[in-house]
Amino acid sequence: MQKSIFKRYLSITMIIVLLSFIMLGSMMMLFFSQYWRNEKKELLTQNASSIAGLAEGYLVQEGETEYRLPTEVLQGFISSFSTSIDADIFITDLKGNILAGNYPNSKLQNPTRVPEQAVALADKGLYEGRNNFNGFYKGSYYIIGVPMRAPIDGTSVGAVFAATSVVTVNSFRDDWFRIFLVAAAVALAVAFCVVGMFAYRLVKPMRQMSAAARSFGAGDFSVRVPVTSEDELGQLAVSFNNMANSLSISEGTRRSFIANVSHELKTPMTTIAGFIDGILDGTIPQGEQEKYLQVVSSEVKRLSRLVRSMLDLSRIDNGEMKLNPNSFNITRILVDTLLTFEQRIDEKQIEVRGLENARAQTVYGDQDLIHQVVYNLIENAVKFTQQGGYIAVQIIDGIDRTSVVIENSGQGIAAEELPRIFERFYKTDRSRSQDKNGMGLGLYIVKTILKLHGGDIGVSSVAGENCRFEFYLPKPSAPPKLKEGLPLKLKESKSREAKGKDQKEESEHGKTEK
What we know:
This protein has 11 helices and 14 strands. The protein is of the alpha+beta class. It has 3 domains: 5-171, 2-Layer Sandwich (Beta-Lactamase); 246-315, Helix Hairpins (Orthogonal Bundle), CATH 1.10.287; 323-510, Histidine kinase-like ATPase, C-terminal domain (Heat Shock Protein 90).
């Protein structure tokens, strides 16, 4: 059977409250009994002593050792005292014979003797008992006895007893106990309601979290826990909701990742399979096979780029991408990358601006990773620049950073798409009319690489005119100086062009764009 925190908390709390009431009642009953005994003892002793004092004043000496007590005179006093305290008061001689008395508490009718042993004990100073007085009473009584002495020589002549029924006291105690039980029952009912409400409110967020967790397990990440307080439970609910948001984003990213990868893999694989099957079954003539094999080769390279990008992405997500920083010339990286795209730049008649003013600029970082950043940005610029447009580059040497600006003319990027272009698999060219080979990972990897270096990248665009990317790398405290010069001519020998093509093949894994 499933255990409920609500029931457990409520049960434990009520048991503690109940035990507290039991202990409180027991202590109060003990205190009450002790208090009653002390009060009764004092009251009975005081009245018995008062009667004894009166009686000693009325003693009449009839012999050398004999005294007579005028009971008719004392009877009025005894009746008044006994009635006022609701107790039996009676006077005895040394042999236990009752000389005078009044019995409003016990309603006895003219008793004659009391235990002589009790008189002897009272004669010693004080008798205290809680019994039936050796059969004198039918029930238990609380009895106090004090000595009565002669006023001349102080010899003992008798005793005065005061007694009250224990039943009377027990009845009063029982009435008080019933009142206590009623009050305790009401307090327990109120405590049960209050504790129950508190326990329910305490457990409710946990139940909501449990239900939300089950929804998460079923794939529904839309459930959130209401935040109703600012205490620890409220903070737990906030943290739980933040975790739910992260899980929702991660799940969305995972689904988008799988969908995009599936799409990117499906297209080239379908093309490759179709052309290979056409060659094998003779559908494609012998004379056209080379052309289609080139297409197959292009698609294989595209798959290779996708796999390399996925590996880079995996390294980034797992935190395995490590930097191997050193000092290098960022201007040379920029020029060499432009040379890599020289053929495509010439085909589109693109004007390259800014190299005429470029100077050697040292930066500190991982040269290979920064080359991948520059390669991706220039590839984007070449890809999206219109026929006869321009690409402008600029290197800005700041106080604490070095900035690189790459701008190209063209359609630009819509303002509503700018905040998303650094997301995984996001493409601004949804129709793929211009970006048929891109996978939407390039700018995400670019931003991640720059973040690893402590830098960042920004973008601005004027729709229908241009697009401008600017990234920066922070400067080290004491940057080393360059040890070599730098040729800045864009067009060089055919061997240099071949070298650029080789570099292109080596850097294909960085090629991706929005």
